[in-house]
Amino acid sequence: MAFFDSEIVQEEAKRLFGDYQQLMQLGSDYGKFDREGKKKFIDTMEELMERYRVFMKRFELSEDFQAKLTVEQLRTQLGQFGITPEQMFEQMHGTLERMKSQLEQPPS
Question: Containing domain of residue 46, as a range?
Answer without folding.
Answer: 3-103
